[in-house]
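Example record used in the benchmark description.
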Amino acid sequence: MTGGRPAGDAPLAVLGRRFAAGEIDEDEYWRRMSVLEEHFGHKDGAA
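Model output (structure tokens):
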């Protein structure tokens, strides 16, 4: 568990599962990925 939430329920994991299942296309995947990065940032120096 990370941050009180099972890793399988992490936003990126959900996004990846939806893309793999064909629920969203590649364009939608990358749009949503960019939104998640804006909200959660990177751990490599982003505040």
